Amino acid sequence: MKVTTKQITMTAALLAICIVSQFLKNTSVYITGPIINACLILAGMSGGMVSGLLLAVITPVTSFFITGSPIIAAIPAIMPCIMAGNAILVIGVCLAVQKKPGQVGMVIGMTAGSLVKAVFMGVVISMMLIPMLLPEKMQPKMAVFQTTFSVTQLITALIGSVLAYIIWIPLQKVMKEQ
Questions:
Q1: Which CA distances in Å does 123 have to 117, 131, 173?
Q2: How far is Cα of residue 144 from the mean position of the Cα atoms in its chain?
């Protein structure tokens, strides 16, 4: 597979947007989460699955360094699970669009990718890792952490999907013209 300058540039621009949005994470996950998810989807749509998967792996690392999440510091095994959840979203969208090109495939991929991402993270992180590995001093916040890695993931992925859909319509036209 040949990587083009346009793919590298688009991936870098979307990564920059992700990093800037991560500085707002302490404000609200409902700001940062949708922006990150939209960027993951747009990277997959504009740069291909590899571009989306690169962001899926890089963004949790940059987020940890920027915000210093106490839950990830306490349970480092959560990091690869977040990467996998992000990858599920990207793969879901890319595969759906390959099978059914156009807006219908994109909507199916975004919806399915968001649901599978949330279920995966909910089961693996919220139901397995957090109950088994959460330090005693953090036990009072268990319900908050479990919600963050399940329901919140679904909501932010769906909002991010809507943002990506809205952005993709004009972006696709511009990309075709170039």
A1: 10, 11, 39
A2: 20
Q: Cα(146)–Cα(114) distance, rounded to whole angstroms?
A: 17
CATH number at residue 47: 1.10.1760.20
> Residue 102: inside a domain, yes or no?
yes
**Of 21, 31, 19, 33, nearest in space to 156 by CA:** 33
Q: pLDDT for 21-42, tens place per residue?
A: 999 877 889 999 999 999 999 9
CA–CA–CA angle 141, 147, 152 (5° rounding): 135
Q: Containing domain of residue 68, as a range?
A: 5-171
**pLDDT tens-digit profile of 84-114?**
999 999 999 999 999 998 899 999 999 999 9
Comparing CA positions, the residue from 149, 164, 159 lying closest to residue 94 is 164
- Domains contained in the chain, number: 1
Amino acid, res. 4: T
Residue/partner pairs of 136-145 with CB below 8 Å, 24 or more apart: 138/70, 138/71, 138/74, 145/71
The answer to whether position 178 is within a domain reads: no
Note whether residue 95 is domain-resident: yes
Instruction: Specify the pTM.
Output: 0.93
Pair of tokens at residue 5: 């300058």
